[in-house]
Amino acid sequence: MATQDSSAVAPIYHLPPDTNIVSIEHPCIVNNFDNGFRSLGGEAQIKHVIEHRVGDSAIKVDNKTHVYPEPVIGVSLRPHDPLAKKLVSGGVQTRNLLLRVAVPRRTGRKRKRGSNDPFVFSAGPDSLVSDSITAPELLARLRDNEKAYSVEPIGEINETHRFRGLPDFQVRGSELPIMREIRDHAMQPSYDNISKFHVSLNPGASHITAFPPPPAFVTLDQPYRYEYQQASGLVFQTDANGNPISKNISAPTRRVVQAVLPDAPEIPHAPPPDLPAQDSLVSHLQTAITRLKDILAQRPLATRRYLINALAIHGYSETLFKEATQYAGYSFRAGPFRDCLIQYGVDPRKDPKYRFYQTLMFQVDTEWSKGPGGQAHRSLRRAPPPSTIKASNGPMDNSHMFDGKTVSSTGKTWQICDITDPGLASLINSERIRIECDAAGWGWYHNGTMAKLRVIMKDKIRRLLNGNETLTEKEYDYIKKFPDVVRKRSELEETLLDEKVVGRSVVQMGLEFRAMVNRGAGPSYGKYGLEQDQEGPVEKEEDVDDEGGGDEDEEGGGDFEAMNEDEEDDGEGAEMGDASSVK
Predict the structure, then answer these.
(1) Which CATH number fits domain 21-103+149-162: 1.10.3720.10, 3.60.21.10, 3.40.50.620, 3.30.200.160?
(2) Alpha-carbon Rg of the chain, whole angstroms?
(3) Does the pLDDT at position 25 exceed 70?
(4) Which pTM value belongs to this model?
């Protein structure tokens, strides 16, 4: 009790010693104590919270934590349903006081204010009974009884358990057969009930149409703060009719790169008309477009890697390069000239001089370019990423070229004009070419010539990436002697080699050659890619069985702007018969 004196000093209260009080903030309004007590798990759960302290799990015992359990209590919104999910509490350390405040109880009798009439009951006797009192009512009673109340400290509240987390979704398990079995039998403290627990373990039971839910649906402990704000780049305007519209001024400009089909009758001669005018662009982008057009004027077809190497010496980034390509040229979706930026107005299908600009694509796995210690082999050339290249007065990077001795692991596409390997010169400069371009497959070269070129180059790239020496030119000569044009099945018989004479590697290349010719590179070679004479069809022969060894094509479509040689392989692009997966 408070010590009363005549001074204006606040009263002093003494706390009882050795009191252990734990506060539990029940999230519901408790009108029935028994239901509220049961919703917290009963005596056993509350005893667990009282006997342990918040932070016990962090105490180290023999350098180990979580030796003592952390006091946690759960509250159920359906205390009579043992399968209901509970809200888990979070314990915090507090320094609050528990007080017992006694005020005169209201009798329930009333009289008219200001009169001397006797007090009478305004309601029945039940109005005298009150299960609980609200905070405003308690304050009102204290104001009405300034000198007729007493305060007694019970103790200090050192721990408080709060239910501030996000509640999980509730599932009514009484409708699930397996949950009913658990509730009626497994959760009953009786051997007879437990012995009746039965779950069908027969595979493929058709009567099982419902399954128990996961332990939790919500993975967040705290609700997300939805503080919606207006997008910074969104502005509101009016259209021609006066209607309000919204416009995102921070959205990147959509690139419009013209990618045509390989058999399209016409090719683009100018940039798309819906592009912004070149003179309206920023100055550095205009300069990049001008330089890109100058490069294509000297080399009308170029791969992305070559163009980036050519522009990098002037300090242009890869992002700027992508913006400039749509103003400088177009590309084919597939075919022998795929993944090239082609100058507007130039159709490489019309003149055989463009055969040297055909592309060869090989699917390269960069993991094979590392040795046992994780270091790159010395036979590999690694160029820095284009976006990090700075302007330099030095020579242009030659990672787009293939000399047969080193190979760059930053790309997978080569143009025939960039192949400087002397061992492949006889195939590249072959005068025996097609009269008309096969726009869907082999291009200007015959099937045998292109298959030999791809097989030999594929073998060299594979060996260089693995850190091995390439075969001798004498061994590659066995492949070069294969026919340039394969029209009949009988012509493939002369490509059969003796492993004891030429070796296993050469025999494997022979298998790849036959598989590549059989599959073909487009519809102009019939069902199995055997070339037809352009002056008339050849005699049909029986189907040729695929001997394996070659990599099957996967048709892909994608414009030049979306191509990414140096970063990743989307698995869509062998445009010349064989995907040539170097493995």
Answers:
(1) 3.30.200.160
(2) 42
(3) yes
(4) 0.51
